[in-house]
Amino acid sequence: MVNKRNTINHEFIILESIRDNPGGVTVSDIANFTKFSRNTVSKYVSILELKKQIFSKKVGAYKLFFALKKSYIPFKTAISYYKALLSKIKKYYPNIEEMAKKIGKEAMKDIKFSFGPNVYKQLKTLKDHPISRIHLESFKNFYPVYDIFQPNIEISVLKINQEEKSATYRFKNSIFLENSDDFIYHIYIMCGITEGILNMVLKTEVICNIEQIYISNEKENSFFDISIKMV
Q: Which residue from 27, 156, 195, 201 has the least number of CB within 10 angstroms?
């Protein structure tokens, strides 16, 4: 069975590596940037060409790939811009975590999310069958769709309380937990966005809270925990 999430992530990462290099890149270049195998890159490059998101041309002895749409902000530029804003907001306005959450919840109303019908279908199962382990998998698949800065975030279920209709998740591999707490307002913003989206889609009150943030010198050991409770 094909893992659709992995397919989306591979396409996204490869497309971004091509967009970040407007002068053109080879399959070998993309493999070096992404750490994917040449076979994997070749496969998804072909898919992206069929979708008309990239094109190729022969330049000397090399076949180079280019993004078709030029009106974009390279991911590295966008993330550095966003991180700079987060760090300065935290510097001049420390200890406003709850305000950051409120901002995320309000901002959610103005963000144009591109959710497909399957996403809404998965979310609605939470309303009909709250806090069963099977249906909570829907949230794990749903979160990366709207946290656009972290398509490769790793999510696991830590705890489920069926009586209280609540669950706690652990998030790892976050680009906002790298050796400091400069960027943690992003986590609170996303907590607010999550709460707003679930309230809207499920037509019921959902409370989303940050339970724990742990920052290590090693990125792979850093994590944050978020709880969701249906009232």
A: 156
